[in-house]
Design brief:
Strand order of the largest sheet: 3-2-1-4-5-6
Mean pLDDT: 95
Order of helices and strands: EHEEHEHEHEHEHEHEEHEHEHH
CATH superfamily of the largest domain: NAD(P)-binding Rossmann-like Domain
Number of helices: 11
Number of strands: 12
Radius of gyration: 21 Å
Helix content: 25-40%
Organism: Caproicibacterium lactatifermentans
GO molecular function: NAD binding
Protein name: Dipicolinate synthase
Distance between the termini: 22 Å
InterPro entries: D-isomer_DH_NAD-bd, DpaA_N, NAD(P)-bd_dom_sf
């Protein structure tokens, strides 16, 4: 086992970019689950699970590790990588890093015996990822909204990591921006960003918005709340799956409600891969 080599086990465009970036730093990179991928760096190796584990000291799992609760997320794989005893055995004795490890542990309880660290749970990762998500949200809105963001009336639900990055970006593009808040301190921050704070309890009063961005990972846009918003309004859900919007209700009420999950992977995979790399490198130093 080579302690200076990295094994990339499954993933999407972020992990493809991650593999190339780590290889560019001079490390040996072996990938598993990338049979249908083409790497710009020809030194990146492709191997099965057992061989990858045998060649590498550090193993990097995707974000999230699993979607279906049965296999590792691997968009470029020819064959599935099951979350089973063979997978657990391959991870033993390695430094293992992954994203949203809770889903994998729920799917495969045997993984509890394998020391793993979750890069998704770190604040430095979350803040960097939020900036990419906010930029992706702008691109998504420009594509889906028939008007321009300049002059549009926008509501951002939540002023956490993503909302606090998104609201000023919308404002800079000339949009009139309102933001839902729970505390007076948050309202002050929203005002300082040139936006209008809206108490969260007033959400059910609706408003004449062109676009609503939800960043809250809880069902706050219920049928009752949605019924107060204008017909034809665009609602973009940026929160984690399953989202914070009653999508069937939105459709029946004539609202355009769209999921925009995993935007970093879709709109900026290279930047997203760099964020994962920076976070893992920092975790290794610590």
């Amino acid at each position: 086992m080579n302690s200076s080599s990295f094994g990339i086990l499954g993933g999407d465009r972020r992990q493809l970019a991650l593999a190339e970036s780590i290889a560019g730093d001079g490390f040996t990179v072996v990938t598993c689950g990338f049979e249908n991928a083409e790497f710009l760096d020809t030194d990146i190796k492709k191997a099965d699970l057992r061989r990858t584990a045998a060649m590498c000291g550090t193993l990097l799992l995707p974000l999230p590790v699993t979607i279906d609760g049965k296999n590792v997320k691997a968009e470029y794989a020819e064959y599935p990588i099951p979350l089973d005893e063979t997978f657990v055995e391959a991870l033993e004795g390695h430094r293992v890093y992954g994203g949203m490890l809770g889903r994998a542990l729920a799917a495969c309880p045997q993984l509890e015996d394998v020391p793993m660290e979750d890069y998704y749970a770190r604040e430095d990762f979350a803040l960097r990822n939020a900036a990419v998500t906010a930029e992706g949200a702008l691109e998504f809105a420009m594509r889906e909204y028939p008007g321009t963001l300049c002059g549009s009336r926008c509501l951002v639900a939540g002023f956490g990591r993503i909302g606090s990055q998104l609201a000023p970006r919308l404002r800079a593009l000339g949009a009139t921006v309102s933001v839902t808040v729970r505390r007076s301190e948050t309202a002050a921050l929203v005002e300082a960003a040139g936006c209008r704070p809206v108490p969260i309890e007033k959400l059910e009063d609706g408003g004449s918005y062109d676009i609503v961005f939800n960043t809250v990972p809880a069902l706050i846009f219920t049928r009752h709340v949605l019924s107060a918003f204008p017909h034809g309004m665009l609602l973009i859900d940026l929160s984690s799956s399953p989202g914070g919007v009653d999508m069937p209700a939105a459709q029946k009420l004539g609202l355009r409600a769209l999921h925009a999950f995993s935007l970093p992977a879709k709109v900026a995979p290279r930047a997203a891969g760099e964020i994962i790399k920076q976070t893992v490198y920092q975790m290794m130093r610590e």
